[in-house]
Amino acid sequence: MSLFFQLVTSGLATGAIYAALALALVLIFRATNVVNFGQGEMATFSAYCTWQLMQWGVPLWLAVLASLVGAFAIGIVTFRLIIRPMMDAPVEATVVITLGILVLFQAACMWIWGAEQLSFPSLFPGGGFGIGEVRVLASAVGTLAILLAIALAMGFIFRFTKLGLSMRAAAFDRTRSVLVGVDVERMLMLGWGFASVIGALAAILIAPRLFLSPTMMTPILFYALAAATLGGWDSPLGAIVGGLAVGVTESLGASYLPFVGADMRIAVPIALTLIILLVKPVGLFGSYKVTKL
Amino acid sequence: MRLVTVLRGCAIQLAAAALLAASHASAAEPSPGITDDTIKIGVTGPLTGPVAVVGGVAEGIRARVEQANGEGGVKMGDGKTRKIELVIEDDGLDPQRTLANVRKMVEKDKVFALVGTAATPNNLAIGRYISQKKVPNVFMYSGVVALNAPEWEVGFVPSFSTEADAFAEYLKINRPDARVAFLYLNTETGQTFMTAFDGAIEGTAIRVLERQPVTSQDPTVETQLNTLKASGADTLVIIAAPRQGGEAIRFQSESGWKPLTLVTNLSSAYPVLQSVGLENAKGIITSDFLKPIVSDQKSGDEGVDRYLDAIKSANVNFVFANTIGQTGYAIGDALIQSLEKLKQPTREELMKVVHNMDGWKNPLFFDGISMNTKEGSDIYPVEALQLYQFDGQKYIPIGGVLEFEGTTHE
Questions:
Q1: Residue B1's pLDDT is what?
Q2: Tens digits of per-residue pLDDT, A99-142?
Q3: Are strands B113-115 and B137-138 parallel, antiparallel or unpaired?
Q4: Sign of dihedral through CA atoms B113, B116, B118, B119?
Q5: What is the pLDDT at residue A262?
Q6: CB A171, CB A31: distance < 8 Å
Q7: What is the pLDDT at residue B339?
């Protein structure tokens, strides 16, 4: 039985990793109506910047803060240089462009810092504590706490502030948003900036567990997409619940379903996502769009 | 009259030229890719993608080759001194891209031979093609014995089955009743290793309690590790790529589980241990045929010092302690030694040379380990390993060199 609880616990810890990237994906989708496949790699780049600053002797917290500010700038520059010129292109083109962002940032990391994995310091104390025979990692608890705080803040901003509402409007319908006085371009730009910051924070939280490397985020992307779909693309809280659900089902499925095994473990959360989408097509926490005739 | 003389003169000259060409051909028509002052060699490997670290092989080769070129070139067995021109292509470890690269290098760039081709599936993918085209594929970076073009191939690193034999040997002596848990890469690599290990422990009291597969794309391996821990094993064998292997090394130290941990050299390199935290890696055991290089300062060991010089001036993208890069350099050195022995500038001759290595030394090999092959029966140059234990700072050799010459098996 203690193996079961240990598997649930490590499923939650892994789920927190998926949730972190899913949160950034949901934010950019909510703010700009685009799924940015390159979000993870942009985040990795920011994590490398943190690492580099620390190599130069900057203390951890300061390095993190500086990188988050830098990430905001990276998001905005990416939007201005790459996304804005393509704003009127069909959605397929945008998808390809975000894949290009993935390749671009990964290549940049590899070029500047090399392919070797590096150790990345944790914001939280190392090790963990035991509940009975089950071991809980301090970093997993800390990561979850930070993610929850971000999700709640995001929910609040999108629902109750003028800025959040304007961003949603700009993402939802560009033409009509202009008519009601929303500066659409500025809102989209801010959306890219904020998503980049959340992504960078996610990478900084994840890197100590996964080791910093240019491809750190690539395998996470699939799980994060599943998590965001499961939770509902317009719900930050859903992204977290989705991430955790993916982590736990994956962990239990791989261990207890003999025909799945560790090779096929990604199939379990994908199957779960499919089933939930069949029952509730917008995801667990997604909201239906109402069209009035 | 005069015209006739001129014509006759021409005819004689032509005949003489034809005769000369004919006699030259019977000596040895040079193969493609080699002229009097250069020889073209192709390298393909993953310079990008999730396992770009393996690209260190190509970088190491480049460092050794640039060093040789900088010293004027390689004085080859036919008396001519040639510079080596490397053509390096990225395949992202995708076998189809490897094949495409090799086609391009053979047909367009006209390389003389391929060297250091990385990974097993990739070497299998090009086997048929290189046999058809009769292009040597020498010193492959692949530790699996199932090959498909043995006439045109020669290996380099010990087979995973040799490493499995070495680990089994260690356990038989030091923990004869070991209860083993495997974290294994679910490819040819892991399968080869485990089959060999199972064979080697037959008839002993060593038992395997649990095996968990891993892929190089797994974001985390906590699940597998928890299952292994719950099996009650007292010995953990890790056969995994650096990221997953690193996580496993950290797990055995953090989780309160303290098994005897044996790590294959896929993920036991010093930089991997650095990313894990050196203190977490204390006590792990691995095997290698290379000397441990613990500092980038001059050591007094001529081979190592030349290696350090070479990677510095070639400005390689790996750190000095990276064993994949070191292996690349050692492969480059083996290539140069083969060229020095090449009496005729043909591909057939190169295969003859590399299939008859008799105790060749290598500047980066551990003392007592050399390269030996035998035409028709043994295409595995390195079949000896030294075990090392990590003391928290560096690897310490334990026991003597384990010799498996001529015994590489499936």
A1: 41
A2: 999 999 999 998 899 888 899 998 888 777 877 778 888 888 89
A3: parallel
A4: positive
A5: 64
A6: yes
A7: 96
Q: Which domain holds residue A148?
A: 2-217
CATH class of B38-158+294-379: alpha beta
Please tell me the distance from the alpha carbon of residue A252 to that of residue B126, in angstroms, as a whole number.
40
CA torsion through residues A22, A25, A31, A33, sign: negative
Amino acid identity at A48: Y
Q: Which residue is associated with the tokens 């441990």?
A: B292
Q: What percentage of chain B exceeds 70 in pLDDT? A: 92
Cβ neighbours around A183 below 10 Å, total: 13
Class of the CATH domain delimited by B160-288+390-403 = alpha beta
A6 part of a folded domain: yes
Q: At residue B312, does pLDDT exceed 70?
A: yes
Helix (H, G, I), strand (E, B) or coil at B89: strand
In this complex, how many residue pairs, one in chain A and one in chain B, have their CB atoms less than 8 Å apart? 103
| Distance in angstroms (rounded) separating the CA atoms of residues B86 and B58 | 10
Structure confidence by residue, pLDDT tens digits, A192-240 = 999 999 999 999 999 998 899 998 998 899 899 999 999 888 888 999 9
What sign does the dihedral B386-B390-B395-B399 (CA atoms) show? negative
Domains B38-158+294-379 and B160-288+390-403 share a fold: yes
Distance from CA of B273 to the nearest CA of A (A): 9
CB contact under 8 A, B186 and A262: yes
- The residue count of chain A comes to 293
CA B191 to CA B184: how far, in whole Å? 8
Instruction: Give tens-digit pLDDT for A254-273.
Output: 888 777 766 677 788 888 88
Q: Does the residue A62 lie in any domain?
A: yes
A61-96 residues labelled b (16+ CB within 10 A) or e (exposed): eebbeebbebbbebbbebbeebbeeeeeeeeeebee
Residue whose token pair is 């935290």:
B277
Q: Are A265 and B55 a contacting pair at CB < 8 A? A: no
B50 chain-A contacts, CB cut-off 8 A:
215, 218-219
Query: Token digits for A286?
Result: 């997604």
CA A184/CA B73 separation, integer angstroms: 63
Residue type, A242: G
Min distance B221 CA to chain A CA atoms (Å)? 9
Q: How many CB atoms lie within 10 A of CB A125?
A: 10
Q: Do A10 and B223 touch (CB under 8 A)?
A: yes
- ipTM for the predicted complex comes to 0.84
Domain count, chain A: 1
Going from N- to C-terminal start, the domains of chain B cover 38-158+294-379, 160-288+390-403
- pTM of structure: 0.82
A66 at interface of B, judged by CB pairs closer than 8 A: no
